[in-house]
Known about the structure:
mainly beta; Immunoglobulin-like; four-stranded antiparallel sheet
Amino acid sequence: MKNYFNALALALIAIFGTSALHAQSINYRFDFANMDCNKNEICYNVQAQAETSDVVLDAFNMRMFIDDAQLSFLEFRSPAANYALETGGMVSTGVSGSGEAVFGFKGEFVYLTENFKKLEGNAAAIQQAPNWSNLFQACFNVNETLDKKEGFSPSLVWDHKANGKGFARGSDGIESLAVNMNGTSFNVVEDVVSFSSNGKVDNGAKAVFIQCDGNKIERLGDAVLVYPNPTSDLAKVQFETSDKMEVQIELLDVNGRTLKSIVQKQIFEAGMQEAEVTVDGLQSGLYMIKITKKNEVISKSFEVIR
Length: 306
């Protein structure tokens, strides 16, 4: 697969020249789609988001981990119009003890990969922030030994994180190629909003809590995304509110000290929200965005570069 991406990149350079390969950020996330408690099946939308409104994905290689004590792979399905899923999902399982050692899973980790590729002809551009585009669905069988009436929170982890487990930004965890509507290629910088292990809302993870008592589904956490990451002047904080609520946003250093208030107990309606953070005067290094809403506190790290 990597040879395919390298060959395609070289072909794009040959056609458009190296000057055409400017940087463009694409964000990816898993978004809960549905749970069928009768069939013990759960699905998530694999979604993408671009900085501008004219970015079209040409190819995307997704790699992810699941906990085999909770889930087993069912299928990748429902690709966006004029796209195809090439492999049907390639699956491998880690050695004994790998799930707990690497991610804190209760079982072993299962490693899944899929290649998402544009077909001939036109395809819709990726939605611009704060909106998201559905690429395809990732569906799983839920382990029958789980007490779904008591409730559980599935663990899904991207094989790509700026900080933490998985490949680092710019390596092989996620590979994508994109062009604009005129066919000019982009040098893509990928970032993710990841599920953390066992439903913990960690580093901007998005989690859902599932209870199969009358097919009831409850959300535990919402997504938080800071972009561009890293940044040198201005960052945007994207978050979701499930209903009308009061939100407070603070900028912290790595030791948890508050540096400044970004949003002071402001009321937001339900939906996707955005706030801006200026990083003037901050030295290079890692910082945290802390969001407080209702009885929930979510944090997301990001990097300032000079």
